[in-house]
Design goal:
The chain is of the alpha+beta class and 124 residues long. The protein has two domains: 1-30, no CATH class; 38-112. The protein has helices at 23-28, 46-58, 63-67, 87-91, 101-112, and strands at 6-7, 16-17, 76-79, 96-99. The strands form two sheets. The chain has a two-stranded antiparallel ribbon. It has a two-stranded antiparallel sheet with strand order 3-4. The protein is extended, with a radius of gyration of 17 Å. Residues 117-124 have low confidence and may be disordered.
Length: 124
């Protein structure tokens, strides 16, 4: 079964495609992950996973959903201000918030230029 055709993710491009970008714009886009370090190299190792689990046990609901009056279990510990490799900011728990995967994906895409948004720098 093939995916349905959808407009290209390039703003203003009407070309229909089954992937994110049409052939013309796919070539213009360097793969985001091509420049990104692995999760472990960015600090998301076993020590982080233990800290993350402890934080989620104390803050079990998505802060974004709670602002909208919904109690949705959090599955992600988000860095409110992106740490961009700064270990002090990475481990500063006052810079953490609990989020559900959906809210975290939306926030990250907005910050990193995903979902057709533009960004001036890549998050490493």
């Amino acid at each position: 079964m093939q995916r349905p055709l959808k407009p290209c993710n390039e703003p203003g491009c009407p070309t229909l495609t089954r992937e994110g970008y049409c052939e013309q714009h796919k070539r213009d886009k360097p793969a985001y992950d091509q420049y990104r370090k692995s999760a472990a190299r960015r600090g998301y190792d076993s020590i982080w996973r233990k800290a993350r689990q402890g934080y989620l046990s104390k803050h079990p609901f998505c802060v974004s959903c709670m602002k909208e009056g919904r109690r949705v279990p959090a599955t992600v510990v988000d860095h409110i201000k992106p740490h961009k490799g700064d270990k002090k900011l990475f481990w500063d728990s006052s810079n953490w918030q609990s989020q559900c995967a959906s809210c975290h994906s939306r926030k990250t895409a907005k910050e990193d230029g995903g979902f057709g948004n533009r960004t001036s720098n890549l998050r490493m």
